[in-house]
Amino acid sequence: MSVKSEAKPEWYKALARYEQPDLKKSVWQLTHTLLLYFATVYLMVRTVQAGFTYWLTLALAVLAAGFLVRLFIFFHDCTHRSFFASDRANTIVGYILGVLTFTPYEEWRHSHIVHHATAGNLDRRGVGDVWTMTVDEYRAASKGKRLAYRLVRNPLVMFGLGPGFMFLVMHRLVKKDARMQERVSVIITNLALLTIIIVASLTIGFKTYFLVQFPIIIIAATLGLWLFYVQHQFADVYWARNDAWDRIEAALKGCSYYKLPAALRWFSGDIGLHHIHHLRARIPNYNLQRCYDEVPEVRAITPLTIPSSLKSLGYNLWDEERRKMVSFRQAVALTSVP
C-alpha cells in the first residue's frame, strides 16, 4: 500500500533540516561560477576577433555552456526560494540569471511549480512537463495527432530543434493565460536581452556576439533538456490517476537519481538527485548530496547511469496496464496500432 502524502513518515519530515540556505555557500557558488562563465565568454570573443579557427571557439562554447547550466541550477533554486533565505534576493538574482539563461523568471517559476505539484499525475499533465501519452490515448488519437506526437518524441526533433525553439522562441512569448507578474517577467527579460544585443552590436559587433552567444545557449539548452528528460522518462517511472496519486511516491519513483561523474555533478548542481529535489524542493543544490548521504530512505533508489539513461530515448508511451514506459514498437505489438 502506498503512503499517502497526507500521512508523511518521520524521515520525510526530518528532511526539513536540509532546507536552510547558507548565504556563504550561495554567494560563493554564484560569484565564482559567474567569473568562470564570463572569463570563458571573453576568451571566445577574443578567438573570434583574432580570427582563430571557429572550432576553438566552439570548444570553449562547450565549457561556457557547462557553466551556464550550473547558473541555471542557481536560477532554478531561486524559483523555489531555496538559494537565499530572502525572497527578495531570490527574485533579484533569479531575474538576472534569467536574462543570462534566456528564461523569464516569473513565467518559468509558475510553470515549474505546477510541474512539481503534478509530476506523475496522469490527470494533470500538460504544464512544465514532457508531452507523454498513454498507450490507450495514442491508440485512440487521430493519425495527425499520432504523427505530431512521434515528431515531438523523436530525439532529432526533441534534442535538435527543441532546445533552440524553447529558449529562443517560446521563452520570448507571453502566454495567453499568464498572470500580470509573469507577463512582466517576459517583457523585462526580452528588453534586457535586446539591450545586451544592442550594446554588443555597438562594441564587439553583432556577428561576434552571435558566433559566441548562439552556440552557448544551444548547447546549454540541449544539456538542460536532456537532464530534465531523463529525470522523468525512464522504464519504471511513476504515473497514477489523480485519486491514487501520491506525492511522496511520485518523488521517489517518478523522479530519477541520475548518478553522474563528479565533474558533471558540479556542472549540473547535483540536480541528478532529482528524487530528493521533488521530495523537498526547498533544499538548495549544495545540500542535496548531504541529504542523500545521511538519509537511508532516499538511497533506496536504483540509479540511472549515463549508459542506462540512453535507453530513455526508446520509451515513448505509458502503459497503464503494465505500469511501465514502452516504445512505439511495443505499443504497436500490444494494441495493433499501425
Largest sheet: 3 strands, mixed
If you compute it from the alpha carbons, what radius of gyration comes out, rounded to the nearest whole angstrom? Answer: 21 Å
User: Strand order across the biggest sheet?
Assistant: 1-2-3
Looking at the chains present, what oligomeric state does this protein adopt?
single chain
* Morphology: globular
Give the class from helix and strand content and strand pairing.
Answer: mainly alpha
User: What's the N-to-C terminus distance?
Assistant: 37 Å
Task: Please supply descriptive tags for the structure shown above.
338 residues, mainly alpha, 3-stranded mixed beta sheet, 16 helices, 3 strands
Notes on the protein architecture:
By secondary structure, this protein is an all-alpha fold. The protein is about 60% helix and about 0% strand. The chain has one domain. The protein has 16 helices and three strands. Helix 5 (about 105-120) packs across helix 9. The radius of gyration is 21 Å and the shape is globular.
